[in-house]
Write a structure and sequence with these properties.
154 residues; 4 helices; 78% helix; mainly alpha; single chain
Length: 154
């Protein structure tokens, strides 16, 4: 499991515990994507990422359900008149309120779309920054790991 470079750098394990520890470190490095020689089998996506996506999808579904309920309640309010015993508006008033509600619904949908786009862009920026930090840390780790080897051979 350990790469040839790691074996050359560290030499032979002193005992079975060190051999196991190094094998686990090498396996972890392949799972984290820190090594070029990934496992041959398909690597599963980290569980935390899958669960976060599922949680986010459930939250989005709940928000959409709440938004639809709120819009339906607002539209019902727009077509009723508490001053009338039966609560309904005349045809002209009803059409005016329906048109106004349609305009409001369209405007709200655009606001939601803009907000969702902004949230996606922020998430993409966070992902890009994380990837950059991860790459910089991996490079620094590689530099620091290689530094003692260069001193011993130099």
């Amino acid at each position: 499991m350990e790469s040839d470079a790691d074996r050359a750098r560290h030499g032979q394990p002193r005992n079975s515990a060190e051999e196991l520890h190094r094998a686990l470190d090498a396996y972890a490095a392949t799972l984290q994507g820190d090594r070029a020689d990934h496992l041959i089998s398909a690597e599963p996506e980290p569980i935390a990422a899958v669960r976060a996506r599922e949680r986010e999808a459930a939250e989005q579904a709940q928000l959409q359900k709440m938004a639809k309920t709120t819009v339906a309640a607002a539209m019902l309010e727009k077509v009723t008149d508490p001053r009338r015993p039966h609560g309904l508006l005349g045809d002209d008033q009803l059409q005016e309120r329906i048109s106004a509600a349609d305009v409001q619904t369209t405007a709200l949908a655009k606001v939601v779309e803009i907000e969702q786009r902004r949230e996606r862009q922020q998430a993409e920026q966070v992902t890009a920054v994380r990837a950059q930090v991860h790459a910089e840390l991996a490079g620094e780790r590689n530099r620091l790991t290689a530094a003692p080897t260069a001193r011993h051979h130099g």
